[in-house]
Amino acid sequence: MEWLGILLISPAWGYLSTRCFIQASLGVAQFFIHIVGFFKGAVPGNDNALYMGVAIFNVVLFSLLLLGGFWLLTVILPFGQTQTEVVVYWVSAGISFLFFLKQVPSKIRGSWRYATIPNALWVDSMKEKIKL
Fold first, then answer.
1. pTM for the model
2. What is the pLDDT of residues 73-117, one digit of tens each?
3. What tens digit of pLDDT does each residue of 49-59 get?
4. Residue 41 covered by a domain
5. Residue 37 CB: number of other CB atoms within 10 A?
6. Which of 57, 108, 119, 131 is 20 to 30 A off residue 34, Cα-Cα?
7. Is 11 domain-assigned?
8. Rounded to whole angstroms, what are the CA distances from 130 to 27, 109, 119, 124?
9. Kindly report the CA angle at 124 between 105 and 54, in degrees rounded to 5?
10. Structural domain that includes position 34
11. What secondary structure does DSSP assign to the chain, as a single string?
12. Cβ neighbours of 132 (radius 10 Å)
């Protein structure tokens, strides 16, 4: 059982927990971006309100997944009891964090565009459809 934790569970949970953390953090950033967009007024208020609702949903969903995963692995299952499991987890989480960190600026720029430029989401959607 110990090897299963070291070889499978630690790397997988390092990746998944980092993804949940980044997504929840992005949700907080997107919420505040859309508050600014709401008060700036370039985009209709109901669009920014919808984006704020989606951002809050992301924060709640990924925070609950992160907390539930840690609860399941540490309270219910005997995970993280050896030093090797913990080290493999943090190495996997660190590598995943570096990979996910590269994606954060483009996500924030996209949210800023959607919050401050009218019809930016529609324009981006049409660009994607034209590529097909």
1. 0.84
2. 888 887 877 888 889 999 999 999 999 999 999 999 999 988 888
3. 999 999 999 99
4. yes
5. 24
6. 131
7. no
8. 29, 22, 17, 10
9. 65
10. 18-125
11. -HHHIIIIIHHHHHHHHHHHHHHHHHHHHHHHHHHHHHHH-SS-HHHHHHHHHHHHHHHHHHHHHHHHHHHIIIIIS--S-SHHHHHHHHHHHHHHHHHHHTTHHHHHHHHHHHHHSTTHHHHHHHHHHHH-
12. 4
Does any domain span residue 9? no
Tokens standing for residue 118 = 């009218």
pLDDT value at residue 130: 83
Closest by alpha carbon to 56, among 79, 32, 37?
A: 32
CA atoms lying within 13 Å on the CB side of residue 30: 28
When pLDDT is cut at 50, 70 and 90, the band that residue 2 belongs to is low
CA distance 102 to 69: 24
For residue 50, is it within any domain? Answer: yes
Rounded CA-CA distance 109/90 in Å is: 29
